[in-house]
């Protein structure tokens, strides 16, 4: 499927941005940088806007979601916006009873840890999401309209990254009925009732894949699959019980492509939309996470980028991986750490600077702006 000519990748607005070039393995004038959780509680303008609105209501208000997505791009001049939403939004949109509790995370009215629970979920047709995702498409459209006019000195528009939760990370919340430390309910179901587990994974894969596809069709220039809690799994369990579902989710965007031209302006082969895969504590899984068919692997802060590069194999662009704890350290300490991440990232064909996980809510936002400036200067 070829994206519409108005899509920022097809229109040539973001196809040669620092971010998209890095995701296809090319270096450009400077290393691109964005931060997981850049939109959110570290910004006073976010906290002001959110007063009186619940998290999932904010996600489903297109003007608000778009404004929150744009706030960090304006303030920090990062090389990408990440769509303001949540991994449980597609569940909410098809009618699953979920809310996001401040300081806690997604909480369901019940757990779905056995065959009967899974059967209740799978009775919902994931295709229903397409009829319900108007607020998502609308928010992306509004966001991209502004990003298309936002050039922070890179010579291109700023791309939007769309995202979705991977089936395992969603199942970790669903099985438990809320956040947990070890994701025990999901890991038990996987072994206690492999058939029910498989059904749950197939269903979440289709739902979350459709959520991701909606964002790309509406204008996102890249897609990130968050398997945040995959690090709780052994390599064998990941490969057997999880990786096929993550691949199935990504199949919903892998067929999306944009047309390109060569230097003479003649039509060149279509390129697919770049896909990134990230999880926390996934040092042992990096090769397998790459193998499901992604362009770029996101690395958490526990493993240096040059070590990660050896594990994913040659030629794979990497994203990461400053320890978020360093954001609260004295500037000379933070500066040295940023430079170290850049240095280790040089072994990969291309590097997208990011944190090893999300921005802590108490982060001083002026520090993030300074890190963006440093990454651009030091890598130029
Ligand atoms: O800036 C961005 O990164 C974009 C927005 C974004 C949010 N959630 C907004 C959000 C993204 C990409 C996510 C993904 C997400 N949601 C993940 C995967 C990424 C990761 O962090 O590992 C996960 C595991 C979730 C589930 C979830 N939602 C958690 C764990 C929490 C935090 C709970 C808390 O309050 O500490 C949420 C809520 C959430 N999602 C907030 C934001 C800005 C905080 C809501 C608030 O302002 O109260």
From TrEMBL:
Record family assignment: Belongs to the uroporphyrinogen decarboxylase family.
EC number: 4.1.1.37
Keywords assigned by UniProt, alphabetized: Cytoplasm, Decarboxylase, Lyase, Porphyrin biosynthesis
The protein's name in its UniProt record: Uroporphyrinogen decarboxylase
Source domain of life: Bacteria
SUPFAM superfamilies the UniProt entry points to: UROD/MetE-like (SSF51726)
Gene name linked to the record: hemE
Pathway: Porphyrin-containing compound metabolism; protoporphyrin-IX biosynthesis; coproporphyrinogen-III from 5-aminolevulinate: step 4/4
């Amino acid at each position: 499927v070829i994206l519409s000519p108005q899509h920022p990748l097809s229109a040539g607005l973001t196809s040669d941005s620092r971010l998209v070039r890095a995701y296809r393995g090319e270096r450009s004038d400077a290393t691109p940088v964005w931060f997981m959780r850049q939109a959110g509680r570290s910004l006073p303008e976010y906290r002001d806007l959110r007063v009186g609105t619940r998290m999932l209501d904010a996600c489903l208000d297109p003007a608000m979601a778009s404004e929150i997505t744009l706030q960090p791009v304006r303030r920090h001049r990062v090389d990408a916006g990440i769509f303001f939403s949540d991994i449980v939004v597609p569940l909410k949109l098809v009618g699953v009873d979920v809310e996001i509790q401040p300081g806690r995370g997604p909480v369901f009215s019940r757990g779905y840890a056995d065959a009967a629970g899974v059967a209740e979920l799978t009775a919902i047709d994931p295709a229903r999401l397409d009829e319900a995702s108007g607020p998502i498409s609308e928010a992306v459209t509004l966001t991209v309209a502004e990003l298309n006019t936002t050039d922070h000195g890179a010579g291109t528009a700023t791309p939007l990254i769309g995202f979705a939760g991977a089936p395992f990370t969603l199942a970790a919340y669903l099985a438990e009925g809320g956040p947990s430390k070890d994701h025990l309910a999901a890991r038990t179901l996987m072994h206690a009732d492999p058939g029910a587990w498989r059904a749950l994974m197939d269903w979440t894969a289709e739902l979350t894949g459709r959520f991701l596809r909606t964002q790309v069709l509406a204008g996102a220039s890249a897609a990130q699959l968050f398997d945040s809690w995959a690090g709780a799994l052994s390599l064998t369990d990941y490969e057997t019980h999880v990786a096929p579902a993550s691949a199935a989710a990504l199949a919903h965007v892998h067929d999306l492509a944009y047309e390109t031209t060569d230097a003479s302006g003649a039509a060149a082969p279509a390129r697919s939309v770049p896909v990134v895969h990230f999880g926390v504590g996934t040092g042992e899984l990096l090769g397998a996470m790459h193998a499901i068919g992604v362009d770029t692997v996101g690395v958490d802060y526990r493993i240096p980028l040059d070590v990660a590069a050896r594990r994913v194999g040659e030629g794979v662009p990497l994203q990461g991986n400053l320890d978020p704890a360093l954001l609260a350290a004295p500037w000379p300490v933070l500066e040295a750490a940023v430079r170290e991440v850049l240095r280790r990232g040089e072994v990969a064909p291309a590097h997208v600077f990011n944190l090893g996980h999300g921005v802590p809510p108490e982060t001083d936002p002026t520090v993030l702006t300074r890190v963006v400036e440093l990454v651009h200067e030091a890598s130029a």
